Amino acid sequence: MKKIIYFLLPVALLLTNCNKKQEQQLQQRNQELNEIIGERDSIINELNNTLNEIETNLGIKPASEAERANLRNRIQRDIDHINDLMARNQNKYDSLQRLIRVNRGRSSKPI
After folding, report:
1. Count of alpha carbons within 13 Å of 43, Cβ hemisphere only?
2. Concatenated DSSP letters of 52-108
3. DSSP state of 14
4. How many domains would you assign to the chain?
5. Which among 1, 64, 73, 84 has the fewest CB atoms less than 10 Å away?
6. 1: three-class secondary structure by DSSP
7. What is the pLDDT of residues 63-90, one digit of tens each?
8. With pLDDT > 90 as the criterion, what percentage of the chain qualifies?
9. Which of 81, 82, 87, 62 is nearest to 72 (CA)?
10. Domain check: are 28 and 74 in the same one?
11. What distance in Å separates the CA atoms of residue 56 and residue 68, rounded to the nearest whole number?
12. Alpha-carbon distance 47 to 71, whole Å?
């Protein structure tokens, strides 16, 4: 009987220690997730404040929530269009850079 107790006691302590480690890991992960949620909420609030500031600066006073949503959609489309233009310009720039490298290689070769 004593042998069983001497065997089970360390096993029980080991299991308890593992559970504490898991609990600590879960608490740490929970804290990390709460911080991420807080950051996300801050970003959303900042975005809303920025949109409100844009509306104020443009002198736009939407009468209803539907108009406000429409305005936000228009602003988002404009931003998407600008991003598209920037991507196309970046592609043109990259193409020109490749052309320059090719031409430099050709001009440095002896005739």
Report:
1. 6
2. HHHHHHTT---SSHHHHHHHHHHHHHHHHHHHHHHHHHHHHHHHHHHHHHHHHHHHH
3. H
4. 2
5. 1
6. coil
7. 677 777 888 888 889 999 999 999 999 9
8. 14
9. 62
10. no
11. 12
12. 14
d(CA 35, CA 29): 10
47, 75: one domain: no
In the predicted model, what is the mean pLDDT of residues 52-59?
79
**What integer best gives the mean pLDDT of the chain?**
80
DSSP string covering 4-70: HHHHHHHHHHHHHHHHHHHHHHHHHHHHHHHHHHHHHHHHHHHHHHHHHHHHHHTT---SSHHHHHH
In three-state secondary structure terms, 110 is: coil
Residues 109 and 71 in one domain: yes
Q: Is-above-0.85 flag for pTM?
A: no
Structure-derived torsion over alpha carbons of residues 76, 81, 83, 88, reported in degrees to the nearest 10 = 170
Range of the domain at 72: 64-111
